[in-house]
Amino acid sequence: MKQEISTEIKQELVKQALAARKFAYVPYSKFRVGAAVLAKNGAIYTGCNIENAAYTPTNCAERTAVFKAVSEGITEFDAIAVCGGPGEAEPEDFCTPCGVCRQVLREFVDPNEFLVLLCKGDGSWKEMTLEELLPMGFGKENL
Asked: Where does Zn(2+) bind (predicted)?
């Protein structure tokens, strides 16, 4: 059964995702992204995108946050907030996770239960499930 996440926790996720965005290392794209993932135990893990001149070693904010949690033994999540946009100004539009990040999230969550908050710099957000972002995704049950 889907667990309800309070407005206060959603606001905190958005706040932390926006704060994490400030640490993005983006010398090539100049597109800063921050993410904050909520673990089932209530802990929040943040991440930013980290670019590399070779491009393929670049890591997105969402994966940075999830991998940080997994590296500390946490593999169950309820929600993620993602904020991104060009330059240092606060994002004026919604930023969605890339396909690779959607698949990484799919590894650890029920796509119908996992909440994705797409947020703007003004603190507003749009709610979606991972299933809406990754319909018919490939998971463990497909192996």
From this structure: 60, 98, 101
Whether residue 62 lies in the annotated active site: yes
Residues 100/67, Cβ–Cβ less than 8 Å: no
Which positions ≥6 away from 143 have C-beta within 8 Å? none
The DSSP call for residue 141 is G
Q: Is the pLDDT of residue 132 over 50?
A: yes
Beta strand 31-39 with 115-119 is unpaired
CA nearest to 121, candidates 92, 143, 141 = 92
Q: What would you report as the CA-atom Rg of the chain, rounded to the nearest whole angstrom?
A: 14
Question: Residues marked as binding for Zn(2+)?
Answer: 60, 98, 101
- Global pTM? 0.94
* Distance between CA atoms of residues 71 and 10, nearest Å: 24
Provide the residue type at 99 as one letter: G
Q: Which residue out of 4, 12, 62, 132 is catalytically annotated?
A: 62
